Every structure is written in structure tokens, then in C-alpha cells.
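Honest question from a wet-lab person: if I give you the sequences of every part of a complex, can you actually get the arrangement of the whole thing, not just the pieces? Trying it with mine:
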Amino acid sequence: MTDILNASLLLEWYDTHRRLLPWRETGDPYRIWLSEVMLQQTQVATVIPYYERFIKAFPTPTALADAPDDRVLKMWEGLGYYNRCHNFLKAMRRVRDEHGGQVPDIPSLFSSLPGVGPYTCAAVQSIVFGHRLAAVDGNVNRVVTRLFAMEGVVTGAAVRRAIQDAVDIAIPEERPGDFNQAMMELGAIVCTPRRPDCLHCPLRIGCQARILGRQESFPVQGMKKKVPLYPVALAVLVDDGKILVQKRPATGHLAGMWEFPGGRILTGEDHAMALKRCLSEELGVVPEVGLLVGCVTHAYSHFKVELSLYLATVREGTALPKKGQALAWITSEAFETLAFPAANRKLFPLLADALKVLPSAI
Ligand code: SF4
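Yes, you can. This is the full assembly:
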């Protein structure tokens, strides 16, 4: 196994070919941890500006721990997978309160912090503190299943175990953090999902997938579930030049973010019916539903939404927040001060256009 996954060849390649990335120029555990959290499910090029802004705003665990939730969420806005942000913030508050502001260097202590799973624990603890823990992410899955031509479904228990065993054996005592980063780097820039650059791969000699000429057959994916599409009706409730936005509860999907009121369109409902029901349930008002502002679709990891945004006014009642939620009447210029999910943000230009044509609406 060690011949196929040869750490020396890999590290030699990494020393010459690794990309210069902001989090590779520091030994600061907080910064490296932040980069690992931001990089989950997200491309390096997307992460870099977020990482730099975040570090500038919150340079230490305590600076982040002391910041208000809304400010932190606003900094994360657009990066998606917001649970990462909530968990990182909770973890920094534990670091401040229980560890004197220092990131713990004991893996068992570190992994008890919010949002720290086996991958994050192995990555941070190996890179920063030199613990010999092998980190397995999607890139490593791809490299290892190709090296050993693993035929089972990559999410299956047997293959996951085999991947972990392969890297646990190969990771060296010296430079375990560089080994982990080298594996991820190889998957990111050489052993890519499509058309891997085997000619420039340091592990090409022993790679079973290359020898078989079946590089793109690995990793073997399971049956893909059909992603459901949910139609959603939203309202731009307008009153006295201001627009009503509501804050989602502090837990659950898109926790703590702001959005236009509305909700899922149920079977048998048209858009206006759905809006009237949702605004009555959510805000306790009867709306007058006006013109359609526009429609957008947005994909989350397990479902898609099709959002239809309507101009509306309150015909009866006074909008009040449900328990655990907040409401705010704001001008459209003030949208930039609050954290909105990407799906709502896609509607902003459509709303701006509608307001140009219909200035009397505001
Ligand atoms: S030889 Fe090709 S398929 Fe095998 S690990 Fe290297 S890049 Fe990936």
C-alpha cells in the first residue's frame, strides 16, 4: 500500500508545486482552522476574499467571540452553508471561555468543540500541531479510490474504511500536516474529477486506475437522489417607503438570516393564495397581492427553490413577529446592512428594476 501511496514522492511534489495561499503563510491555529471551515464544500478562489475580510475584521478567536452574531453572519454572507459560521462562532466562544483564547492542541479536546468533525480535527491538529492524523475529504477520496481502483461505492462503509486505512498507513511521523495538505492539493490541481493530469502526478507509477485506463471510473458514486424543487411565493410588503423583512429563527436552515416574508406554495394553491396564507400565519396580516416582481431559482445541497416575488401591501392587521423571529421595515438601500441568503439576493436586481418602473409603489 505504501508503495502505491508513497509519502516521500508526494511531499517532494508538494514542496515544488503547492499553491501559495494566505492560510499557508501562517502557523496561527485560528487562521488555519478558519480556512479549513471555509474550504468545506467551497472552492479556494471563492474562499480567499472571504478569508481575508474575515481575518481583518476578527483577527483572533477572542475578537470573533466578542463580535455580535449579526456582524459575523454578514461577513459570511454569500459563502453559504451557514451552519459552518454559527458553529465556528460558538466554538470561538468556547475557546475564549474555556481555553483562555487559545485553540486546544489536544485532539480529543479540540474535537469536542462545535462543528469539529473528524476531518477538521485531523486537518487542523496535523497542520498546526503536528499530530499524525490523516484527514479525508472529497479530494482525498478521489485520489485514494483511483490509486487503489476501489470498486465499491465511495460513500459505503467498506470503501470509507479502506480509504481511511490507506491514508492512516501512509501518513508519515514527520510532516503529517504537509502530507494531508499534499493529498488535498493533488486532488485539487492534478487528480481532478475530469481529465486528471496523470502525466504530472507524482503517484502515477503505482496508480491502479491509470494502469487500467479507468481514471474517471473512480470514485464510484451511488445512485443520485432526485433533487426536489419547491415553489415559494414571497412578498415585498411596502408601507410608507419601507419594505418589511423578517429574520429567520436562531436555529435551523439559514439560521439568523433576513429574508422577504412568504413560504412554500402547497398543492392546489396559486401564488396569491399561498402568499395570503403564509403572511397570515407568519405575520398575522391580510395582504393585497400586487404585481409579480420576478422569479429566480436557487439550488441548495438537497433541494432547489423557485422563488416568485410579488409587490404587496397590508390590507388588514399589523405585522408582528412570530416567537423567535424579528421584523424590520427598511429602505431598499438598507438591504446591504443585513445578511440575506443568496436566493433572496438574486431577487434584489429584479426588485430594483421594478421600483424604477413603479416608483409609486414605494
Ligand atoms: S495517476 Fe492520475 S488518476 Fe492516478 S492519482 Fe495520479 S492523477 Fe490521479
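Two things worth pointing out. The longest strand covers residues 286-299. Strands lie at 229-239, 242-247, 258-259, 262-264, 286-299, 304-316, 326-330.
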